[in-house]
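Q:
Got a chain?
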Amino acid sequence: MAFAPWSRAIERVCEPELMEGAEQALAYAEADFSATDQAMVERIACCFGAQLGERIVDLGCGPGNITFRLADHHPSSLVVGVDGSGAMLAIALARLDQLRLRHLQQGERPRASVSFQQARLPCPQLQGGYSAVVSNSLLHHLHDPQVLWSTVRQMAAPGAAICIRDLRRPADQIALERLVATHAAGAPPVLQHDYRQSLRAAFTVEEVEAQLVEAGLSQLDVGAVEDRYLEIIGRHPI
C-alpha cells in the first residue's frame, strides 16, 4: 500500500551550521522570540533555583536574546555568549553597547557581567569550568550532534547545571506545515524558509537520548516540550 508523500516520516536534512548572512541575522534578531526566550529562562530557574553559580555560558547565543535575560536574572554571575557567526555577534555586541550607554545615561554602573566570544564549534581553545551551560536552538544546526555534547563536557565544571532546548523534528510533512502555519505564518519569507529547514534538521527525543549515551551524558533527562521543542536538563557528572 503506497503512502502519500506528506504522510511519510521526515528524515533529517542538515541545514547550514552558521547564519552568516547579514539579512538572515537581522531578520532573526528582529523577530519576536520574547515569550519562548523568557519561558526558557524561567524553566532554568524552576529546575536549578535562583543561583546558577559564578560563570554561565550560552552556546550558540546568536544576537544574545538568552544571554541578556540570563544576566538580568543572575546579576552576580558572569554570562558569556559564544557563537560562530560574526553577523550574529555584531548584533549582540551592538545591543551590549546600547545597554551600557543606557546605563551610563541613567547614572548606573555599566554592566560588566556580559561578554561575547566568537568561536565555531568544536573549539578546543574555549576555556571550561562554567557553573552552568545553556544552549537554545544550536543542536539542530550542527551536522554532527556530538560536537555539542563534547563541548558541554569541555566547558561544564563538575556538577554544573545543564539546560539545552531545541526544536523537535515533526513526524511528517503534514505536521511540519502545521507548525509553520501556527508559529511562523506572519514571519518574513526568509524566516519561514529557515523555520522549515530547521524543523527538518532537528532531532527526535529518541535520537537525542542515543546521542547522550554515546557522549557519556546519559544522566541528563530528555523530554518533549509543547508541540515543537525538546529539552535536555540535568547536571554534569561530578
Remarks:
- The helical segments are 22-30, 34-48, 65-73, 86-105, 146-155, 173-183, 189-201, 205-215.
- The mean pLDDT is 91.
